Recover the amino acids of this structure.
């Protein structure tokens, strides 16, 4: 059947109350995206992750697919439950999107550790005051204003046509009193007199995007905000999106478009709130992992998705903000910080910049735990900085965990098992809905401490609270009666194994890097934990499960979104931008997957430590 | 009546055989443009020029307007003749476009005088040969190729995302053997190995566009071609177009779009013919009068259309060719040469460059006669170069002349009046259709020589061949029996007056400039006549009617399209581009309209010289 045949089908999405008309055979997931209804999807619509579960309440749809049957029981199918990505509409339908399948706004970590930066941005404002043209002085508008700029010997001012375009009307409106924004010899914009130059820094994460508006004269932050990365609708993890982008040019274009629109919207919101005009925004600085910056710039990712996983470009790139559809001063640049490798991105460079990892007086580690975990190790005694990257999977972000979720309202972030049973604390103190990363780590540490799981991670069926469902043991964290979903919130044996894989990868990654750089663990005087997950992480639990190396708590520093702070630093200072370039060019890289002993260490690291022992104090 | 009401009207254009459906009340001129039928219009659809005369053969149209009645007799109206710009369709109609109203392709002057240039373009090709990535060498693609570029101390290669985009696929296809095109430190494109860098030079005239494809390594011209400037459909003269552009943003956008498309098409044709790939075209260089370059770049022209007629920008401007929709290497620049003033454009600077006017050992004049005439006067004894500009009107281009036309097939270019009557020569030796510029000058010189007109330009009714039509005397050049239109081709008293105005403006302009620079006429050892009209001009006739100053023929040099040659020179040489900048910045300018004595001189120059007398030899 041709998708465009027949009359359109009307779909009502409940409980959000959105309606859309689509061609017959459109999938419910595509329809939801088109209607702006956030339906969760990790695999990007491939029928693999089972997260896009919805209930078809009324109306005709296609028959269940093999993927439906793999993810849903006969009873669930009979109840109308279906995977949105597998289900095609054949008539008007009413669809219920359960809370667990809804993509919801997340609590974002956008506060980084403060770090002093000498403000010397790439763009400066110059005040201009001149007189208008006459028959005796028929100089062109641009010549007139550049002649009025403070004369710099040898300086030859240039301006693109896009920058000249608004000048004639503006100059006549302001009586030839203007602000010119210059980036070296290039004028990137004109504005009314007295308008300060403003910058926009942005950390494009796989899940979230953090933006900052900064006064480029004082360095003062005028606003900060976060939004979800809308590419989530095309796959929650990096690989799904790379696959999507490599499949066809339209996929890549879609991924580029939605993130560009998100950046533009984020900037617009920040500017409106701060009372800043768009044409005052004269420079943007963006960081992100290599895949995110490639997708933003619509650079090819084919070679990034396959071994040896190389970037199309690793140097810092400048592009006109307008070329990305980002409304700013007409000539404003968007500067993307350099990356190191395919899986060590500009966000890692920015983290190093923000945490001063390259300037530590002692051996130090910086680690940003996420779906992909990047680790940097500084050895000032040798003048080296070495990085490694490991695929830790999305478990710490709540994915691939039965009742996992991101750190949104209702997410369990703290778990304690005491004499009276399990107690939890949720984000926003709302009724518990699921477990976010820090909650899972907490739960598993507590389960191990209290003997619910043994050192190999096996759940003990004889322990109270452990039960067997679908032939698999599971441990109840919150019973249905107290949960916000009306269902038990549990940690399954599978979940424990997922966390073992994830923490094993991170621990083995750190250990391998430490060994590859011939560093003694006790010489590591500082471990910087960056990123949202890392900031909410309970350090004791992380050490207890062996996620992080056994070092005294005092050596750990949880710094929040260091990548975002690094973006701000590079926005504010040309010297720091130059420093980022040097970091990216001179950083060493250890390929873990081919490092001797990594696999053995990975296997060992999946075990739980007998008990937390600090090797020194 | 709302233009979109009712069913569409179908219009058939004959004899071209094109059909289009338009909303009721659309004018025939707009419909013709939309259908791609070239209907002549000088005034841009204002009902003034009367050139868009068509015949409504069948179907219902709006009633004749005042403009129709002013331009057409009652009998012509009764025959169905109408102005296309005034006539709105009210139903299906069949329209006949007479030959005289058709815009036809013109013989273009694209051969300039040869001038030696040291080839040193802004873009150079570099051969790259390197190896692909591996786990041991996971450098990014861009890093890999820039590392392989010949190392230049301190050189920091950059490339825009648009340039990086095709690199991964190309490099893998060619086995990491590539050509990189670099402009300073910026890589503007990559291509297969051995691909030469090619440049595109372009002279955007008000009427015609001349393009040249040039090998940037040898300077060899690979092809040259000309097309009509499609903006003609929006008004034949500069002012009509400026009015159109200032009326609304859509008008300016339309004017920009059509000329950009023309440039892109011209480049495409040249490249296809020369067997050059688009991604080998790494730099473009464009000249034109100030209005043309502003319209191409979509720069504001409000301030250009009103006194004191200032440009938005007079400096040379660089813009990415892709930003104009011109397909070339992804990072290729289009360089627009600097202009001098609102009415002394980049084409004048290019003419000076091509003719070496700024390096003459003696006093010399360069003049490009057109709708607007630019004059440059070099005084090497004083180290000055001074320009002036006068509005000479479009008469020399065949406009505002009863049977005027451009130098297309059938245009009379030579006229002689002998004992046996008038003899003519036409372009392509086709049956005569009208008079082009050189033909009109010839005709009027001959009419004056033989006493058909007196020194004041009055036509003598008693002379054979002179007759009176509509109370105005006219002189028959070609009788209907021998013409290609079936109508008499005549020169009217009005035509003589138009030429008097035009030649008076040019002559007075030259004289005023000569006087303003305190130059003695006899010291002028060289007069360079540039441009298409100037190259076909019969010098004796031009001197006979007093269009050009009375100097020996040997001092005159007709150099053809010097502006186009100047564009090629600036394309080939950075030094010459720098020289153009200096010319534009240091050239003096004489405002004729406010110069003392200009108006008196103008009035006197409208007379015809008693007879050609050479003041010296």
């Amino acid at each position: 059947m041709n998708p465009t045949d027949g009359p359109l089908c009307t779909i009502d999405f409940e409980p959000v109350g959105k309606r859309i008309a689509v061609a017959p055979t459109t999938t419910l997931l595509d329809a939801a995206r088109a209607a702006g209804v956030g339906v969760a999807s990790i695999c990007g619509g491939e029928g693999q992750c089972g997260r896009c579960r919805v209930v078809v309440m009324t109306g005709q749809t296609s028959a269940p697919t093999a993927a439906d049957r793999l993810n849903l029981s006969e009873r669930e199918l009979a109840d109308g439950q279906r995977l949105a990505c597998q289900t095609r509409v054949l008539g008007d339908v009413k669809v219920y999107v359960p809370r667990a399948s809804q993509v919801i706004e997340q609590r974002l970590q956008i506060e980084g550790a403060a770090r002093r930066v000498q403000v010397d941005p790439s763009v400066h404002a110059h005040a201009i005051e001149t007189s208008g043209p006459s028959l005796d002085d028929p100089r062109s508008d641009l010549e007139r204003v550049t002649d009025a700029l403070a004369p710099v010997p040898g300086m030859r001012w240039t301006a693109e046509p896009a920058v000249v375009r608004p000048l004639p009307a503006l100059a006549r409106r302001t009586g030839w009193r203007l602000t010119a924004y210059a980036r070296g010899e290039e004028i990137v914009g004109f504005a009314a007199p007295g308008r300060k130059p403003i910058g926009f820094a942005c950390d494009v994460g796989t899940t979230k995007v953090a933006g900052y508006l900064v006064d480029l004269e004082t360095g003062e932050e005028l606003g900060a905000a976060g939004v979800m990365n809308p590419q989530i609708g095309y796959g929650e993890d990096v690989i799904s999106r790379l696959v999507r982008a490599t499949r066809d040019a339209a996929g890549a274009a879609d991924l580029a478009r939605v993130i560009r629109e998100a950046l533009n919207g984020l900037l617009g919101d920040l500017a409106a709130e701060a009372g800043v005009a768009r044409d005052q925004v004269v420079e943007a600085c963006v960081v992100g992992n290599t895949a995110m910056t490639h997708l933003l710039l619509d650079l090819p990712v084919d070679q990034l998705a396959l071994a040896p996983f190389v970037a199309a470009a690793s140097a810092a790139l400048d592009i006109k903000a307008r070329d990305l559809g980002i409304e700013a001063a007409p000539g404003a640049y968007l500067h993307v910080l350099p990356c190191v490798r395919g899986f060590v991105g500009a966000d890692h460079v920015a983290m190093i910049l923000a945490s001063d990892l390259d300037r530590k007086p002692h051996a130090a580690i910086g680690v940003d735990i996420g779906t992909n975990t990047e680790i940097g190790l500084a050895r000032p005694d040798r003048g080296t900085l070495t990085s490694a990257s490991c695929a830790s999977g999305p478990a710490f972000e709540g994915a691939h965990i039965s009742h996992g979720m991101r750190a949104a309202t209702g997410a369990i972030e703290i778990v304690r098992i005491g004499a009276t049973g399990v107690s939890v604390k949720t984000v926003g103190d709302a009724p518990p809905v699921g477990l976010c990363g820090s909650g899972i780590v907490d739960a598993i540490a507590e389960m191990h401490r209290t003997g619910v799981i043994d050192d190999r991670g096996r759940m003990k069926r004889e322990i109270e609270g452990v039960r067997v469902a679908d032939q698999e043991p599971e441990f109840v964290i919150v019973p249905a009666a107290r949960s916000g979903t009306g269902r038990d919130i549990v940690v399954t044996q599978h979940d424990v194994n997922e966390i073992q894989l994830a923490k094993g990868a991170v621990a083995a990654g750190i250990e391998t890097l430490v060994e590859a750089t011939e560093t003694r663990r006790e010489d590591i005087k500082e471990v910087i934990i960056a990123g949202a997950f890392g900031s909410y992480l309970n350090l004791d639990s992380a050490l207890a499960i062996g996620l992080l190396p056994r070092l005294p708590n005092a050596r750990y520093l949880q710094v929040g979104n260091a990548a975002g702070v690094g973006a701000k630093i590079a926005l504010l200072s040309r010297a720091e931008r130059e420093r980022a370039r040097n970091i990216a060019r001179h950083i060493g890289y250890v390929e873990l997957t081919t490092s001797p002993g990594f696999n053995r260490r990975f296997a060992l690291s999946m075990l739980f430590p007998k008990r937390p022992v600090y090797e020194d104090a």
Q: What stands out?
A: Residues 249-274 of chain B form the longest helix (26 residues). Chain B has five domains: 9-101, 124-191, 198-336, 356-394+500-605, 404-485. Residues 105-113, 612-617 of chain B have pLDDT under 50 and may be disordered. Residues 404-485 of chain B form one domain.
